[in-house]
Design a protein that fits this description.
This protein is α/β, with parallel strands linked by helices. It folds into two domains: 262 residues, 3-Layer(aba) Sandwich (Aldehyde Dehydrogenase, Chain A, domain 1); 188 residues, 3-Layer(aba) Sandwich (Aldehyde Dehydrogenase, Chain A, domain 2). Helix content is 36%, strand content 24%. The strands form seven sheets. A seven-stranded mixed sheet has the order 14-17-18-13-12-20-21, sandwiched between helices. The structure holds nicotinamide-adenine-dinucleotide. Nicotinamide-adenine-dinucleotide (NAD) binds next to helix 7 and helix 8.
């Protein structure tokens, strides 16, 4: 059920001198050994990616799209096998892993279409002259994908790079390598030329430290924490290398007094616990109008407490363990800090079970502004539910963090929605739903949540450069 893990360099799978274990977070059992790339493996990957770029950037957009669509079809066919591997290594419930596999395929399908629509433009010019703007693939991409969505996170980056005509070296997450391995297999079987897509694992700092300064690497595409994203951005700037950064969020949810309280509360509690809260768009800071606060928080706490927690392989489980052990003490500390500063721990608040990295679905009420969790993204199944006196106060709270990735509002009042659109500082705002993005919508952050967009018609922009051509009919 779990694939053999290897590096993929220059169109061939290879082992490495050193390897590390991959652990099932629900059982703490070893499920595989992951090879770690050496510097010479990285140099081979770079050489392959340079050759891959030369070939792929000259391949027609339609041919590129055809290959990507063939790989996407294989991913759909292999949905069950991939989903089971993801649940084993990540812990999420199997039905959620199945959906993620399809979402990964959709990212490829959308970007394959965009490959054929990366239009330039013609600028009016004097007679005898033509100005034309061309979008061209930027070069070799060094990409780093995180562990929270083992399939859809690498899919976003590979799709953007390959649709644009770039080659890519992807360092996928060491905790959850199977999704990326399956994607690469699908592309291998779909006939992608050698060198266009290369997959490595190992020490993240060593790999980024070695690849980013290399001249052929023209884009660093990273999804992960703001701290690491800031470090990589600074490092890349030293080499004048572009970055696409999809970083942390700390999403606010503004719940207005006119909303359907019960439905909104149920929706909030269910969505908060999806993927055990390990989602950069996870709704976390709920600012609820004080007129409906008691009703809302009671329903929210009841639904959160009823979440079925367990091994993601078991039927009926709604929330699995955290994906890695270091998140358990991190969450415990955040909850204890809030409790010490006066927050009410209405349900949960601690690690649970004696095997696996499980953390209870947790709801904190009336959390004071000086609690760390009001500024730090928990990236776990912990919700803050606080009363607010007005929409003004809710918007001020929503914006009172350095992050601006996703934000949500629950209301049917046009004037409230209008103000949220204008004033909530996020890259993605959703009203009456806690879904944040689709392959066809641009996704990304403002403030410390990152730069650039993935998906939508904007999704290929970071992977391409703009070349203006001035063609004069006569020599001047
Ligand atoms: P972390 O900061 O140690 O690592 C985050 C990611 O960056 C990991 O995938 C890691 O492999 C990678 N990384 C770390 N150092 C790197 C380097 N020098 N070069 C290249 N890659 C590097 O945090 P963590 O404990 O893995 O995750 C916790 C935090 O990360 C969360 O609080 C959350 O904010 C963030 N995170 C965000 C997303 C997202 O979707 N935006 C996904 C995963 C993690």
């Amino acid at each position: 059920m779990y694939p053999e893990l290897k590096l993929f360099i220059a169109g061939a799978w290879r082992s490495a001198v050193s390897d590390i274990p991959v652990i099932n977070p629900a059982t703490e059992e070893e499920i595989g050994r992951l090879p770690c790339a050496s510097i010479s493996d990285l140099d081979d990957a770079l050489e392959a990616a340079v050759a891959g770029f030369r070939l792929w950037s000259r391949t027609s957009p339609r041919q590129r799209a055809d290959t990507i669509l063939r790989a996407a079809a294989l991913i759909r066919e292999r949905q069950e096998e991939i989903a089971q591997a993801i649940t084993l290594e990540h812990g999420k419930p199997l039905p959620q892993a199945r959906l993620e596999v399809i979402r990964g395929a959709e990212f490829f399908e959308w970007d394959a279409g965009e490959a054929m629509r990366a239009y330039g433009r013609v600028i009016p010019a004097a007679r005898g002259h033509k100005f034309s703007v061309h979008h061209q693939p930027i070069g070799v991409v060094a990409a780093f994908s995180p562990w929270n969505f083992p399939m859809s996170q690498p899919a976003r980056k590979i799709a953007g790079a390959l649709a644009s005509g770039c080659s890519i070296i992807l360092k996928a997450a060491e905790e959850t390598p199977a999704g990326a391995v399956h994607i690469v297999k699908a592309f291998e079987d779909a006939g992608l030329p050698a060198g266009v897509l290369n997959l490595v694992f190992g020490n993240p700092a060593e790999i980024s430290g070695h690849l980013i300064p290399q001249d052929p690497v023209r884009l660093v595409a990273f999804t992960g924490s703001t701290a690491v994203g800031r470090h990589l951005t600074t490092f890349a700037a030293g080499h004048m290398t572009s970055v696409l950064m999809e970083l942390g969020g700390h999403a606010p949810v503004i719940v207005c007094e006119d909303t359907d309280v019960q439905t909104a509360a149920q929706s909030g509690a269910v969505r908060k616990m999806r993927n055990a809260g390990q989602v950069c768009t996870s709704p976390t800071r709920f600012f609820v109008n004080e007129d409906i606060f008691d009703q809302y928080s009671e329903a929210f706490v009841a639904r959160a407490a009823a979440t079925v927690v367990g091994n993601g392989m078991d039927a009926g489980v709604e929330m699995g363990p955290l994906a890695n052990d270091r998140r358990v003490p991190a969450l415990t500390e955040l909850v204890e800090d809030a409790r010490a500063k006066g927050a009410i721990v209405a349900t949960g608040g601690a690690a649970s079970g004696n095997r696996g990295y499980f953390f209870e679905p947790t709801v904190l009420l009336n959390v004071p502004d000086n609690a760390r969790i009001m500024q730090e993204e928990p990236f776990g199944p912990v919700a803050v539910v606080n009363p607010v006196a007005s929409l003004d106060a809710a918007i001020a709270e929503a914006n009172a963090v350095p992050f601006g990735l996703a934000g949500y509002g629950f209301t049917n009042r046009a004037d409230y929605i209008d103000r949220m659109i204008d004033e909530v500082e996020v890259g993605n705002l959703s009203i009456n739903t806690l879904e944040a993005s689709m392959p066809e919508t641009p996704f990304g952050g403002v403030k410390s949540s990152g730069t650039g967009r993935e998906g939508g018609t904007e999704g290929l922009e970071n992977y391409m450069t703009v070349k203006n051509v001035w063609h004069a009919s006569e020599i001047s």
